[in-house]
Amino acid sequence: MTHLVMIDAIEMAQLAKEGIQEVQEQLTLYSQDLDQSISYNESEEIIEQMMELKMHQEACRTALEQINKFIKENKFILN
């Protein structure tokens, strides 16, 4: 059972890393959109979406930190 918890933690860490990367890619695309000639309303909407993505990215980073801490503290389980 404890091995399954550790495997789940490792999988969760991978998902958090992927979430961080996906957010960064989307932020890059939104930044490119803002460089285009768009209306004020469109730019306002993009900025709002970017702010939501940054919150998601921060949540993923926090989760990853906590998961990594858990893995380090419980690495003896894998031995």
Describe the 3D structure.
With 79 residues, the chain is mainly α. It has 2 helices and no strands. The chain has helices at residues 2-34, 40-73. Helix 1 (2-34) runs antiparallel to helix 2. The chain is rod-shaped. It starts with a helix and ends in a 6-residue tail after the last helix.
Short description:
This protein is mainly alpha-helical and 79 residues long.
What are the SSEs and their pairings?
Elements: H1 2-34, H2 40-73
Helix pairs in contact: 1-2
Largest sheet: none
The percent of residues in helical segments reads over 70%
Distance between the termini: 14 Å
Average pLDDT rating? 92
State the low-pLDDT regions, or none.
none
Order of helices and strands: HH
Rg, nearest Å = 18 Å
Number of strands: 0
Which oligomerization state do the chains in this entry correspond to? single chain
Structural category is mainly alpha
The geometry reads as: rod-shaped
Offer a few descriptive terms:
0% strand; 79 residues; mainly alpha; single chain
